[in-house]
Design brief:
The termini are far apart. The chain is of the alpha+beta class. The strands form three sheets. Strands 1, 2, 3, 4, 5, 6, 7, 8, 9 and 10 form a ten-stranded mixed beta sheet that branches. Strands 11-12-13-18-17 form a five-stranded mixed beta sheet, with helices on one face. A three-stranded antiparallel beta sheet has the order 14-15-16. A hairpin with a 5-residue loop joins strand 15 and strand 16. It has three domains: about 280 residues, Bira Bifunctional Protein, Domain 2 (BirA Bifunctional Protein, domain 2), CATH 3.30.930; about 90 residues, no CATH class; about 160 residues, Threonyl-tRNA Synthetase, Chain A, domain 2.
Length: about 625
């Protein structure tokens, strides 16, 4: 069963159970400056888990493309990848534990045909100090599900991961773990959650590949248990039951709307189907591995680390460029550049001829293009960008390696050496660090960072060139400012012309900051007109309406304003702001959230500053006072 087949089976299974299938969000999150990438399936759904109404209803499902930059250094073992897909389904105040656990178990056993005897599950052990009981409800559901398959499921207490190494499996099938393992909130453990934060217990599902796969050297003298890193067990899915909110006194109250947030690793479920925990043997990745074997003349087992790094990094870069994130030295683009430059290094290690990385990208595109149609559309752009980055890097790589050999011959590499390698020869710090490690040398990282900060400060020359986009959070005041920003853009387009488009934004609970395309300084009288337009709209007490539509339809509608089209999925949300008399103030593509009625915007809108941001881009700062 291919990875593509598993994805389609899952989406159909959830659709047959009343879920609306929604498209994957882009790898660059919209309206979330807290992170560079979409790193989990639930991340784009946070506003709806927090209470915003989703236009597709209360049951949703998708396969979300994800990227985790922190895992770059981990790639090389049999399970870590930077890019991955997360199968997801959500209940927004609809079903709960009974339905969720049955659906996922049924999908694994009846649809994917996994052996139920190899499935183990974990639940939350509770926290008496916080008044949160252990999750006996999930245990009872799991025991019934296993019993239907002829399996007696004994529940045992593990507690912490370390305790598990001491006491082992104890003949169990269901395991109670503490909050470090089986609790979810955006802030981690219950004790770490701020007032007003929501969270809840979760139930994880693990697949047992057998003791022959418990190869991790640290586990030779330790007892195996599901939620450990022995290599024998692999987590393939996690159902989070969001039912608590933290109160002022530190206690936890039940939420009036209980939500389910499920995430399952597509590659990991596919690995379970193959009976081998090596995710690189799954067909979604193996097509690239096979091409590397062909190009290099080597077999996968001869250098699994190099094969895995090249395979993962090319796949990650392909998807990133497909979402219009190109190699650069800034923000998300830095990670695309880092992926490709690491891929070049490891490609050389196994003898892939120069200039061939784009052929590997072609394999990625061919594997995924049926589901992710943008990859086929952007094929030439993707392959060209990868080929160009490889060519440019190779021009500096030879000189850089010579320089590295020269400085490393001293027996040590200073932070300044690493700085020169980066700024002069295009060596990312991480590449210098890896090459130094090969020679058993260390680098003064603090000196490097100090040099980089000094360099960046000089480059900026005291002027702020960029700022993070999106919303600082989804608090009530931030949401008010967000809707006011839409009205302000509509006013700017009304009085300056329709060549004005958004070029960036940053919104907090105290103010909005907004960049827009315009060549000249905006006259004070026009700013006053924009203020009046926004305040008059707010006074009408009109409403904000959300429509879901295909992106192609939205793009062809001249009445809809939109920027950064490439970052949006195939189906988009269009927010229309109208007055009580039916007058349309604003119609704009957006990821939300917004107020429902304009009267919910409290205060008088005032523009406090207008200035140049960069060539052809102006910036305004405004407040609700």
């Amino acid at each position: 069963m291919s990875g593509n087949e598993i994805r389609e089976k899952y989406l159909k299974f959830m659709a047959d159970n009343g879920h609306a299938v929604i498209p994957s969000a882009a790898l660059v999150p919209e309206n979330d400056p807290s992170t560079l990438f979409t790193g989990s399936g639930m991340q784009p759904l946070i506003p709806y888990l927090m209470g915003e109404k989703h236009p597709k209803g209360t049951r949703l499902t998708d396969s979300q493309k994800c990227f985790r930059a922190n895992d770059i250094e981990e790639v090389g073992d049999n399970r870590h990848t930077t890019f991955f897909e997360m199968l997801g389904n959500w209940s927004l105040g609809d079903y709960f534990k009974k339905e969720q656990l049955r659906w996922f178990f049924t999908f694994l056993v009846d649809e994917v045909k996994l052996d139920p005897a190899r499935i183990y599950v974990t639940v939350f052990a509770g926290d008496e100090s916080l008044g949160i009981p252990k999750d006996d409800e999930s245990v009872a559901i799991w025991q019934e599900l296993f019993k239907e398959r002829g399996i007696e499921a004994k529940a045992v207490h593990i507690g912490s991961e370390e305790e598990g190494y001491e006491i082992g499996m104890q003949g169990g099938r269901i395991f109670y773990y503490d909050a470090a393992k089986n609790w979810w909130s955006r802030s981690g453990k219950p004790a770490n959650m701020p007032v007003g934060e929501i969270g809840g217990p979760d139930s994880e599902v693990f697949y047992d590949f057998g003791p022959e796969f418990a190869t991790h050297p640290e586990f030779k003298d330790r007892q195996p248990h599901p939620n450990s890193d022995s290599g024998q067990f692999l987590e393939i899915g996690n159902s989070v039951f969001i039912e608590y909110i933290k109160q002022e006194d530190g206690a936890f109250a039940k939420l009036p709307q209980r939500n389910v947030d499920f995430g399952g690793g597509l590659e990991r479920i596919a690995a379970a189907k193959t009976g081998d925990p090596d995710v690189f043997k799954v067909d979604l990745l193996w097509s690239v591995v096979a091409e590397i074997e062909k190009l290099s003349g080597k077999k996968y087992q001869e250098d699994t680390v190099a094969f895995r790094v090249v395979t993962d990094h090319i796949r990650g870069a392909t998807f990133m460029i497909g979402d219009s994130v190109f190699p650069s030295n800034d923000q998300q683009g830095y990670f695309v550049r880092r992926l490709l430059r690491r891929a070049v290094r490891y490609a050389d290690r196994i003898g892939i001829p120069a200039g061939k990385l784009s052929l590997l990208a072609e394999k990625v595109i061919h594997t995924y293009e049926t589901h992710y149609t943008n990859l086929a559309k952007e094929k030439d752009k993707i392959m060209s960008a990868i080929a160009h980055e490889e060519e440019q890097f190779r021009k500096t790589l030879e000189k850089g390696i010579k320089e590295f050999e020269k400085v490393s011959a001293k027996g040590q590499i200073s932070g300044e050496d690493a700085f020169v390698l980066f700024t002069t020869y295009g060596f990312p710090y991480e590449l210098t660090e890896e090459m130094a490690k090969d020679k058993n040398l260390s680098i003064d990282r603090k000196e490097f960072e100090d040099k980089m900060k000094e360099h960046q400060d000089l480059s900026r020359a005291g002027a702020e060139q960029k700022f993070k986009g999106g919303l600082a959070d989804h608090s009530e005041k931030v949401v008010q400012y967000h809707t006011a920003t839409h009205l302000m853009l509509a006013g700017l387009r009304k009085f300056l012309g329709h060549e004005v488009h958004q070029a960036g934004s940053n919104i907090t609970g105290e103010r909005l900051r907004f960049d827009f395309t315009h060549q000249d300084k905006v006259p004070p009288e026009v700013l006053r007109q924009v203020e009046e337009f926004v305040n008059n709209a707010i006074k009408t007490g009109g409403k904000v309406k959300i429509d879901m539509m295909p992106k192609t339809v939205a793009e062809s509608d001249a009445t809809i304003e939109g920027s950064f089209w490439d970052r949006y999925p195939d189906e988009v949300k269009v927010y229309t702001i109208t007055g009580n008399n039916g007058e349309v103030f604003s119609r704009e593509l957006c990821g939300g959230p917004h107020v429902e009625r304009l009267e919910d915007i409290k205060g008088t809108f005032k523009i406090v500053k207008e200035e140049s941001s960069s060539a052809g881009v102006r910036r305004v700062k405004a407040v609700l006072e």
